């Protein structure tokens, strides 16, 4: 009996050597695939475990890298890298396309059935792939209510689901309004789930290093958000 397997993959993006985590489901035939983006700190065991869980559900999953194999536990260092990145759609798209190329060239991937799921900065990367017209079956984000360049959301070709905590000061109500207005004006099939009482990065287990203000884990909503992601994939990646 075969089981889920994993391997590390290296590839170039944003002038760095990225180190991603690829999880493959049991079996030998092509399977739907998921590109999984991390929070701004970068790829960690949290995203690796999520990729593994998706592989157990039958998906090829690539948890991609943001910082050349580094995890940025210092909030100032993280912001110094992520804020310019979030302000540069072309850089985000470059990071996303490089990871997507790795996923597409994996023999187990069905290239006609790929979704992008991301958290924070990794979610913004997924949204920029959509705004760049990439053929995705779904885009799902948590803590990533980023808006794009005017008019480019009309190039999104798939449903978009977004989740956010009601008390998230980083993705505040004004940001929610701007994001949903962009999606609606572009004719996107969009949904927004607001998790009551949750802060920014509510889905992420507690960490043993300083964080930016407004971050906090919410165990119940973390489980609910994961179920919402799994439901989105089941809906959009089915045969």
TrEMBL record:
InterPro entries for the chain: AB_hydrolase_fold, Dienelactn_hydro, FrsA_esterase
Lineage, broadest ranks: Bacteria, Bacillati, Actinomycetota, Actinomycetes, Kitasatosporales
Gene Ontology molecular function: any one: hydrolase activity
The protein's name in its UniProt record: Dienelactone hydrolase family protein
The keyword Hydrolase appears for this protein: yes
Residues in Dienelactone hydrolase domain copies: 20-235
Annotated organism of origin: Streptomyces atriruber
Organism domain of life: Bacteria
Pfam families on file: DLH
Enzyme class, first EC level, given as a word: hydrolase
UniProt KW Metal-binding keyword: no
Family statement: Belongs to the AB hydrolase superfamily.
The entry's keywords: Hydrolase
EC number: 3.1.-.-
Transmembrane region(s): none
Gene3D superfamilies: alpha/beta hydrolase
């Amino acid at each position: 009996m075969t089981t889920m397997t994993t391997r590390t993959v290296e590839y170039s993006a944003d002038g760095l050597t990225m180190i991603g985590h690829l999880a493959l489901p049991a079996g030998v035939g092509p399977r739907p695939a998921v590109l999984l983006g991390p929070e701004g700190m970068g790829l960690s065991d949290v995203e690796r475990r999520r990729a593994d869980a998706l592989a157990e559900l039958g998906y090829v999953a690539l948890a991609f890298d943001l910082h050349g194999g580094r995890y940025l536990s210092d909030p100032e260092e993280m912001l110094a890298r992520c804020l310019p990145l979030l302000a540069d759609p072309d850089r985000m798209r470059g990071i996303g396309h490089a990871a997507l190329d790795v996923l597409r060239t994996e023999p187990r991937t069905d290239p006609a059935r790929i979704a992008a799921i991301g958290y924070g900065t990794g979610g913004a990367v997924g949204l920029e792939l959509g705004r760049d017209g990439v053929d995705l079956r779904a885009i799902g984000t948590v803590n990533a209510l980023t808006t794009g360049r005017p008019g480019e959301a009309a190039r999104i070709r798939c449903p978009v689901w977004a989740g956010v905590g009601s008390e998230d000061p980083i993705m505040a109500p004004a940001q929610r309004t701007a994001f949903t207005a962009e999606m609606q004006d572009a004719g996107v099939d969009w949904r927004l789930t607001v998790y009551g009482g949750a802060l920014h990065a509510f889905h992420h287990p507690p960490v043993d290093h300083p964080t930016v203000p407004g971050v906090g884990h919410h165990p119940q909503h973390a489980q609910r958000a994961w179920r919402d992601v799994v439901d989105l994939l089941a809906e959009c990646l089915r045969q």
